[in-house]
Specification:
- It is a single chain.
- By secondary structure, the protein is mainly alpha-helical.
- The chain has 4 domains: 406 residues, Sodium/glucose cotransporter, CATH 1.20.1730.10; 79 residues, no CATH class; 110 residues, Helix Hairpins (Orthogonal Bundle), CATH 1.10.287.130; 153 residues, Heat Shock Protein 90.
- It contains 35 helices and 9 strands.
- The strands form 3 sheets. The chain has a 5-stranded mixed beta sheet with strand order 4-6-7-9-8. Strands 1-2 form a two-stranded antiparallel ribbon. Strands 3-5 form a two-stranded antiparallel sheet.
Length: 896
């Protein structure tokens, strides 16, 4: 393919990415941009040119040794819910803009520590960027035809211009805002898009090679298995290989957290913590899909080319050999996508670190203090833009000077080992509050020095001198100081060897010096906030122990210089409202100082923010005794507040209970009045009838017809019986309540008792044309007071008759046996019982709010007496709640 055509394709592809990024920035709130799938795909920036090309090279030459780099992230993914969620919360709360800010904040906003982390990240990432440029350069040469002109100078080198295009892209979308903690939706959307492309294109070439050029996986396996070194390609060579695998898995485990680009997408670009739930299984699945065909492509290339071609580029060489230029172009674009993602996100992260932790605090801070907010904002953006260009140019120089002699795999591992020096202070500092800044700095420098000595220095010396003497004999001929066999350990691969020694020294220094030297009070404050994740929300505002003098006006002037007057005033208004403070407050407290530092951190980094705030406050050194006293007072206040809160909650609950009880008493009192009115009415009615009939009989002459006299006498008798029943009910209820009613317990046939009750009330049912059915005709004997149970059954059936419609009413009496009791029920198809009345219908003064306007006849004591009788028999009575039509009242009688 012609060079110019290839460059044209690259430019068109970059234009598409620009457009996607532009749309995503324009529609920041869209669900297409803010969802767990975009977040997970952005994490796939881990799969760079090393994954796309380098893994195949390792698989071809060393077999399954390419796997550990992907097993580490797979093992790490389930831990994201615990570890990464904690990191995300802390970063959002403190407006963290880079991993350097995160680590320096953990150790008290230590200025030098932030700079040290930035330098380590630069040393670790620049070679990695050069790896991407190397991949672009070499794949460009493979894609170019033999007649194309290949340049030998920088100005004619297509890789140089690709690097510039990447720098422009990253600059345009990465420096829109001065606040680096702001989300970069455009870049993340384009990275997610590229993650889809590189995976799809890689799967396409894998299927093409495996099932088109060869006859499936079995065919490739059968052909490769006859080679002499096949066993070494598919198995581990003893304990030594086991150690290499262990250290490589540990190395990649750390890298998925610590690489600047991974921290950027996983932590800083996270919109919602719940996206992690999808990422913990979707990201390992992505890695699995990416590695399905690696081994088969490697073996297919080995069978086709032997050792005559660079194994890292079999995905391009195989389709080109079969004259499939279109497929090779897709593969090239997939690899180019992997390069773009890595370079853009890495330079974005590094430029923020360089500006916030190197350039601003160590050179431009004084100049910023004197400028206006608009000019400061412009300076910050320009510093980041220059940083991006500088980083990519330095990476290009590294590529020209060193990378051409190294494989993609070896360059990648150099970067991983260097970045891993952040691990002890990062991971241990999250869960151990004793770690100090001094220990962190000593550990990092020691580990970094050993990594340089055992891994970087050997190839640099060889590249410049062409001699391998340093590797073979060590420094000054000291055998124990051989870079690849330090202190006699010679069975590890160079990356695993460097990782082992650098991590061992780093961790030992961190632990030892943390125990020897305690961090100052500020370090301990932030240590508590980082470690105590459960109470982080409570601690983050009040944990800053501070003593001194500070004025709100001075702090406000600093905020205005960097944030602008409108934004600073809005922020302070929010602060005063949150803590219920007067806007006219003159003296600043620890909370305002902490709040102000967080506001500035996103723009200029935590170290510079601390310096600026320190310049306008008069802080006094706090002794350990004072710190302990303040913390003890805070602890006591927290305990007291907790007790007060508990007491307040208890009082609220008691107040609600008292209110409910009061309302119930009022309701009961009202019901009692209504009950007494009803009883008085019921007593008065028969008495009035008796009196009226008696007066008529006395006033009339003897010539009153005999049949009329008999009718009046019958009326008097009926009213007297009614009056007697009412009085008996009241007396029965009073006896039952006071426990003075004695039961005459004998053995009876329940079936006969039910028939007696039905017979006694059958005439009343017949008048309303209501049918009563006995559903269980089997005889069953048990002990009870028959008169009282008859009273219960009669009352329940009478109530059912009252609330059933004439002619259509149906009542069923049934009973069934339980383990130790018999359950008797009376069911009707009447108007039913309202749900809210179910629990109260047996109360002595309760009357339903849903009764008819014309109340049924009776004293209202029937069900209350019924309940007392059943409970006197050691049974239970209730109204069943799951009846759709009508009502069902049930009571039980025990066997014993």
């Amino acid at each position: 393919m012609n060079n110019y055509l290839l460059v044209f394709i690259i430019i068109i592809y970059l234009a598409v990415l620009f457009y996607i990024a532009f749309l995503a920035e324009k529609k920041k709130q869209s669900k297409w941009v803010n969802n767990p799938y975009v977040y997970t795909l952005s994490l796939a920036v881990y799969c760079s040119a090393w994954t796309y090309y380098g893994s195949i090279g390792i698989a071809a030459n060393s077999g399954i040794d390419f796997l550990p780099i992907y097993l580490g992230p797979v093992i790490a993914a389930p831990l994201w819910i615990l570890v990464l969620r904690k990191i995300i919360r802390i970063s959002k709360q403190h407006k963290i803009s880079s991993i350097a800010d995160f680590i320096s904040l953990r150790y008290g906003n230590h200025k030098f520590l932030g700079a040290l982390v930035t330098l380590i990240c630069l040393f670790g990432t620049v070679p990695y960027i050069s790896l991407q440029l190397k991949a672009v350069s070499e794949t460009f040469e493979i894609m170019a035809d033999e007649t194309s002109y290949i340049s030998t100078t920088i100005l004619d080198d297509s890789t140089f211009y690709v690097a510039l295009l990447l720098a422009v892209f990253a600059t345009f979308f990465g420096t829109q805002n001065t606040d680096a903690s702001e989300k970069h939706k455009g870049i993340i959307a384009s990275v997610a898009f590229e993650s889809i492309l590189k995976l799809v294109f890689f799967l396409i070439i894998g299927i093409y090679i495996t099932f088109y050029l060869f006859d499936g996986t079995s065919d490739i396996y059968n052909q490769i298995s006859v080679l002499d070194n096949f066993k070494s390609l598919t198995t581990l060579d003893g304990v030594e290989d086991g150690f290499n695998w262990f250290f490589m898995i540990a190395l990649s485990f750390m890298a998925i957290f610590l690489l600047p680009r991974q921290f950027q997408v996983a932590v800083l670009e996270n919109n919602r913590e719940k996206h992690l739930k999808k990422a913990i299984w979707l990201f390992p699945l992505y890695l699995l899909l990416f590695n399905v065909f690696v081994i088969f492509i490697a073996w297919a290339g080995k069978l086709t080319f032997g050792d005559s071609s660079n194994a890292e580029y079999y995905t391009l060489l195989l389709p080109l050999q079969n004259e499939n230029t279109f497929l090779a172009t897709l593969v090239f674009l997939g690899g180019f996508s992997a390069v773009i993602s890595m370079v853009i996100v890495s330079t974005l992260a590094l430029s923020t670190m360089v500006s916030n932790n190197l350039i601003i605090p160590y050179g431009f801070l004084d100049k910023f203090i004197k400028n206006q907010p608009e000019r400061n904002s412009k300076y910050i953006k320009n510093i980041r833009r220059v940083s991006i260009f500088t980083i990519i140019i330095v990476a290009y120089v590294f590529y020209v000077s060193f990378s051409k002699e190294l494989s993609l795999y070896s360059i990648g591992l150099i970067s991983f080992v260097i970045i891993a020096q952040l691990a002890p202070s990062f991971f241990i500092g999250l869960f151990w509050n004793r770690g100090s800044s001094k220990a962190t700095i000593i550990g990092m420098i020691s580990g970094f020095a050993i990594a340089i000595y055992t891994l970087v220095l050997p190839f640099v010396i060889k590249a410049y001198t062409g001699s391998d003497d340093f590797v073979q004999n060590g420094i000054h001929g000291i055998t124990m100081l051989k870079p690849y066999a330090l202190f006699g350990i010679d069975f590890l691969s160079p990356p695993a060897h460097a990782f082992f020694w650098s991590m061992t020294v780093n961790i030992m220094c961190y632990l030892l010096f943390s125990l020897m030297y305690k961090g100052h009070y500020r370090e301990r404050n932030y240590a508590e906030m980082f470690v105590d994740s459960k109470n982080f929300t409570t601690l983050q505002d009040s944990a800053l122990v501070w003593k001194g003098e500070a004025y709100v006006a001075d702090i406000k002037s600093v905020l205005i210089r960097f944030l602008g007057e409108k934004r600073a005033n809005r922020a302070l208004k929010i602060f005063f409202t949150k803590y219920n403070m007067s806007p006219d407050t003159q003296m600043a407290d620890a909370r305002l100082i902490n709040f102000s530092e967080k506001l500035l951190t996103g723009s200029i980094g935590s170290a510079s923010a601390k310096i600026l705030i320190d310049n306008v406050v008069k802080e006094e050194q706090i002794s350990l005794v004072e710190v302990l006293k303040i913390l003890e007072e805070s602890k006591e206040n927290i305990v007291n507040n907790k007790i007060l809160l508990e007491k307040s909650t208890e009082l609220s609950q008691l107040s609600l209970k008292l209110k409910d009880a009061n309302e119930e008493l009022i309701s009961k009192d009202k019901q009692k009045d209504e009950f007494l009115d009803t009883v008085a009415h019921e007593l008065k009615t028969p008495i009035t009838g008796i009196r009226a009939a008696t007066e008529l009989l006395m006033d009339e002459d003897d010539d009153m017809p005999k049949d009329i006299k008999i009718q009046f006498l019958k009326n008097i008798l009926q009213d007297s019986d009614r009056l007697g029943r009412l009085i008996n009910n009241i007396l029965d209820f009073e006896k039952l309540e006071t426990g003075r009613l004695n039961l005459d317990i004998q053995r009876y046939d329940l079936q006969k008792t039910i028939m007696k009750a039905m017979s006694s009330i059958s005439q009343i049912a017949a008048k309303k044309d209501i049918s009563i059915v006995n559903k269980n005709t089997h005889s069953f004997k048990l002990s009870y007071d028959e008169d009282r149970i008859l009273q219960v059954l009669t009352n329940l059936i009478s109530n059912a008759i009252k609330f059933c419609e004439p002619k259509t009413g149906k009542i069923a009496v049934d009973y069934k046996l339980g383990n130790e009791h018999v359950e008797i029920s009376v069911t009707d198809n009447g108007k039913g019982i309202p749900v809210e009345d179910h629990d109260y219908i047996f109360d002595k003064f309760y009357q339903s709010k849903h009764q008819n306007t014309v109340k049924p006849h009776g004293s209202g004591l029937g069900l209350a007496i019924t309940k007392q009788i059943i409970e006197k028999h050691n049974g239970k009575i209730w109204a069943q709640k799951d009846v759709k039509n009508g009502a069902k009242l049930v009571f039980t009688l025990p066997f014993k």
